[in-house]
Records
---
Amino acid sequence: MPTAPRPPHEAHADRRTASRAAFERARAAIPGGVNSPARAFGGVGGEPIFFASARGQHLTDIDGNTYLDYIGSWGPMILGHRHPRVIAAIETALQTGTSYGAPTEAESRLAELIIGAVPSIEKVRMVSSGTEATMSAVRLARGFTGRDKLIKFAGNYHGHADSLLVAAGSSAATLGVPNSPGVTAGTAQDTIVLEYNDPEQLEAAFCTGGDTIAAVIMEPVVGNMGLVVPTQEFLDAARRLTHTHGALLVFDEVMTGFRLSLGGAQQILGVTPDLTTLGKIVGGGLPLGAYGGRRDVLNHVLPAGKVFQAGTLSGNPLAVAAGTATLEELREHSPYAQLERHGALLEQGFRAAAAKAGVPVWVARVGSMMTMFFQRGSQPVPVTGWKTASQSDTDRYGRFFWGMIDRGIYLPCSQYEALFFSSMHTDADIEATVKAAEDVLGEIAAV
Ligand SMILES: *Cc1c(COP(=O)(O)O)cnc(C)c1O
């Protein structure tokens, strides 16, 4: 009798026995065994790998396997793990005090660095996560305009605040819970969800309810349904319509900020939003977020104005030290030309490997963010929004993921997350990754 092929995650599972035991223990104490669902491997089948340490571009798991890291903690580690300058800054901060609940000069230094880097930011408030940044920016937009409605786009993820957890990307997309239980109908009612890259739909929404819309929030380059690139027409429509109707344009650059350039996506796209949210890289691997933008808008935040927003650990000295060291390093030793060169090599390599294997894959990339969308048709089809992204062949992605794991390459554990690489990745790393992809795609084609 023919035996069924083994599920891809069971190949070489004996190399991950410690991770398996750790997951069993974690599941008893932590919901689903993880503190954030993106880590749970739900999108690829199998069980998460537990890590013991990281350095540069490499991760080491608790079984002693090492991997070339293409997640970088989902974006923050653009300088690689344990960058000496970042570690030194944290160590110095450790020796002076870890939290005061009172202002420090270091916070002004970081604020000035952010203002100097991001074109649209004239003033900035620090918080402790990307979720807090977007939630606060939305409240500020509503408080500033005196309006309730918010437009967001399907497949864009803006953290887990209630009004933003509607048709969200990232693990919400992976797990198929576009609307979480616990988000009230009343809250969801004030959020209008439109298709990304559809300027006509956006125009129609402003035509019918323009004077009720407080803000349009968007990822200026989407990373959270896999990578999706905006059209100039769509960006121009968003800027023009918000301006005309007195709404604010909010760029959620939690992922793209300091990643696509020092000034984020807005710098390379040439579009100036009213508000920008930051997270991930801005904290250099520690919990820190920020929201900033037009001075007249930011002056509405308490205690300068009346819109309430606060945080016991906001501007935490350790996080500020790590973030400041990261931004200074990016400013003084710009990695962006190298990241672009490596990105182009990866993109071309993956595309050629997929074509050679005859596996239909749409490869999307901007700088050091990239996604390979596995598809079902005979020819790759452009992915422009959630409608096209959600057609992906996630089973094939899962096979690809595990094949790459077996070759020591740690990719995102979901079709609907972008990969990231760091300034520490070398030419040889990129070449080895392309070679591994060729092998795995060849195997997939043979199944
Ligand atoms: C990660 C992310 C968030 C949420 O940030 P957290 O720090 O995880 O709360 C918000 N928006 C975007 C675009 C993100 O990628």
---
Amino acid sequence: MPVTTPAAPAAVPPSDTALPQDFGALARQDPEIAGILQEEVLRQSSTLQLIAAENFSSPAVFAALGSPLANKYAEGYPGARHHGGCEQADEAERVAVRRAMSLFGAEHANVQPHSGSSAVLAAYAALLRPGDTVLAMGLPYGGHLTHGAPGNFSGRWFDFTGYGVDPDSGLIDYAQVRALARARRPKAIVCGSISYPRHPDYETFRDIADEVGAYLIADAAHPMGLIAGGAAPSPVPYADVVCATTHKVLRGPRGGMILCGAELAERLDRAVFPFTQGGAQMHTVAAKAVAFGEAATPAFALYAHQVVAHARVLAAGLEAEGFEITTGGTDTHIVVADPGPLGVDGRTARERLVAAGMVLDTCALPYGDARGIRLGTAAVTTQGMDESDMARIAALFGAAVRDGADAERLRAEVRQLTERNPPYPG
Ligand SMILES: *Cc1c(COP(=O)(O)O)cnc(C)c1O
């Protein structure tokens, strides 16, 4: 299929989000659920969303998500469906696929995976047999559940070995990756993580995979939006298969996608449908197309670069507050910080921060058993915050974690920040 430039919609400036829905009609029919949704809007509007995987999708994305395409059954692929009446569904999927291929320079795109995990499941299904050996980032270092967790299909059906990071630098130890690859002869090597704040060295991963005859799967769920905006290197030229989410920094609907070369296209498509999924969620596919269109604009490239710049300001500010920053900083939207020097571990730090209106995750640290905190700048950047706001947030972090008692005053300060840059204006 030729790679064509998508007809991109008008740029969506970072702060141009609006309340996605008028809950009036819903409130009349079902006040119980409408009340919950309204409370959630209030929660998102009055606290800081610093969970690295979260973002605010545009009203255009929500419009597609809430459209009647949600009612359409469309098993199969455009031009080869198991249901009638798929003309519009086919067109929507063709547009989404074309835009994804163009945006990421890929020979093939599958936009049907229901989630990032579904995308990874399909990639494994296409390339591996149960019992095969896989090398991926170890869970204590930021590997995702789908990278061999015992409670996940990946850990149950495949034989995973985890690589780690250098305990001093926090950086991936490529000599260790190569040694493990030589010793284990994996069928596939997975690069990508939930909390590694630096770019994987895709070229070195490719070299190691080639040396041992393994497939290289890049799980780029987190940085895919940065890649779209030119703010992070792309794994597409190096990996056999790239799995991603369309939410997170990419700012689209919740969902997954897979990119690969033409020679694996048919295997990947069959691994998604019919092997691991039934009917595609066509409203989500349409919303993915909208998000790819937005991500192709200069405004989104600016956004992606701002997200990284903001994470760097936040990392430097947290370091000044006494946090230890793993890898000494960040190249992405993710900052991983150890609050240990402030006398608490990640769980207590998160409790105090959430109480003060700053919502984020704990995460594993590359050394020892104590947990750290992981935060991301995708959502606060979408709502229009700037570098001075990031410096302010870092100061609030210090105050919250050091003396967690003053949560009320901090909440008021957080509200000042969110009122100046509301995620849902109006
Ligand atoms: C988020 C993420 C996933 C899973 O995405 P879901 O949509 O939550 O299933 C998989 N791999 C990595 C590296 C991720 O960050």
